[in-house]
Structures are given as C-alpha cells and as structure tokens.
C-alpha cells in the first residue's frame, strides 16, 4: 500500500459498509418475496421501496462527502463508480419486486429462486468485503467469487429464457416474466461491477 503524508477522509469506509449492509436487507426481502402469498407482496414491496430510498440516501451522502473532501482514501472516480454501482444493485432489486407486484404475477417461473439465491450470496460477500477497504486486505477471494457467481447467474438467466420461450406461457406473460428475470440479471451484473471496481482500487493502491 502506498505511504501517505496527508490525512485521509475515512468516513467513506463506513458509508460504503452501510450501503452494502442495506443491500443485504434488499436481498432478504427478495428471498421473502419468493415464499410470500400474493396478498403479502405489496407490503414487501413497500419495505423494499423504503430500503431503496435508504440506499439513495447513502449514495447521496457519499457524493456529498466526495464533493466536500480535499483528501480522499482512493481515487475520486473510483469512489463515484463504487457508490453508483452499489446504488444500481438496490435499484434493480427494488424494480424486480415492484414488477412482480404491478404485473400481479401469481407464480414465478422455476429458476427465479436460483437467481435470487445468487444475489443473496453476492450481497453477503459484498457486505463482508466493504470494511476491508480500510486495509485493502483479504479482498482477492471476494472479487473472484463474485465474478464466479455472476457467471452462474448468466447460466441461470439463459435457462430461464429458454424456459419462458418453450411455449408454456402466452405472449403477454412471457413479456412480463422476461422483464423480471432480466432485471434480476442486471442486479447480478451490478454486483460484478462493484467487485471489479474494488479490484481496480486494490491494484491502484498496492
């Protein structure tokens, strides 16, 4: 790690950790949605919306701190990219839940639970990794595993698309379900963007 003579603003670490913890909350709400009765989904959606708003607040706080800090713990562009990618994850998860409710989906296709399990695991890994930005230690396994999970998510997504287009569903239902599984795939991609940003930060600081 590079030796610095100037003090650094350290509150960024706490804010990134809080943002990642909020993503874990979102992933748990996704898991809860899977086993919920249709009548209970609106209430889960409201809680997810509240979590997404909390994520927005965390992102705005990071941007505000970035704009008011003379010295930052690592490159400003990487701080911005990391905060934005974390925010994207929450946005995609909230969108998926909202679509399930708005489209009044009675039964999600088999395979969506695997998508959500991958997201839940990626959320846990991301929350565990964020505090390690302080020291830049023990992060290699994190980004390797998140990239592996994203590859797994790609395979699940392709199988889901094949299932949706096998003739079982009518055209309108296919459009609805495809939008939901596509948004969940975008969430997996966003986790990979976070991991790639962390890798970039570690390489620059080493």
TrEMBL record:
<dbReference type="InterPro" id="IPR052912">
    <property type="entry name" value="UPF0111_domain"/>
</dbReference>
<comment type="similarity">
    <text>Belongs to the UPF0111 family.</text>
</comment>
<dbReference type="Pfam" id="PF01865">
    <property type="entry name" value="PhoU_div"/>
</dbReference>
<protein>
    <submittedName>
        <fullName>DUF47 family protein</fullName>
    </submittedName>
</protein>
<dbReference type="InterPro" id="IPR018445">
    <property type="entry name" value="Put_Phosphate_transp_reg"/>
</dbReference>
<dbReference type="InterPro" id="IPR038078">
    <property type="entry name" value="PhoU-like_sf"/>
</dbReference>
């Amino acid at each position: 790690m590079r030796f610095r003579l100037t003090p650094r603003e350290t509150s960024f670490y706490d804010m990134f950790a809080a943002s990642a913890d909020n993503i874990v909350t979102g992933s748990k709400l996704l898991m809860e949605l899977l086993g919920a009765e249709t009548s209970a989904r609106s209430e889960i959606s409201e809680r997810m919306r509240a979590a997404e708003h909390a994520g927005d607040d965390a992102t705005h706080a990071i941007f505000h701190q970035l704009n008011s800090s003379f010295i930052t713990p690592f490159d400003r562009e990487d701080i911005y990219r990391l905060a934005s990618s974390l925010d994207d994850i929450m946005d995609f998860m909230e969108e998926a839940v909202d679509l399930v409710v708005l489209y009044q989906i009675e039964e999600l296709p088999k395979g969506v639970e695997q998508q959500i399990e991958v997201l839940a695991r990626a959320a846990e890994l991301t929350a565990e990794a964020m505090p390690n930005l302080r020291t830049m230690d023990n992060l290699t396994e994190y980004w390797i595993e998140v990239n592996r999970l994203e590859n797994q998510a790609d395979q699940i997504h392709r199988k889901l698309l094949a299932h949706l287009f096998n003739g079982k569903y009518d055209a309108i239902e296919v459009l609805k379900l495809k939008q939901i599984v596509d948004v969940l795939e975008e969430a997996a991609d966003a986790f990979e963007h976070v991991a790639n940003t962390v890798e970039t930060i570690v390489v620059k600081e080493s």
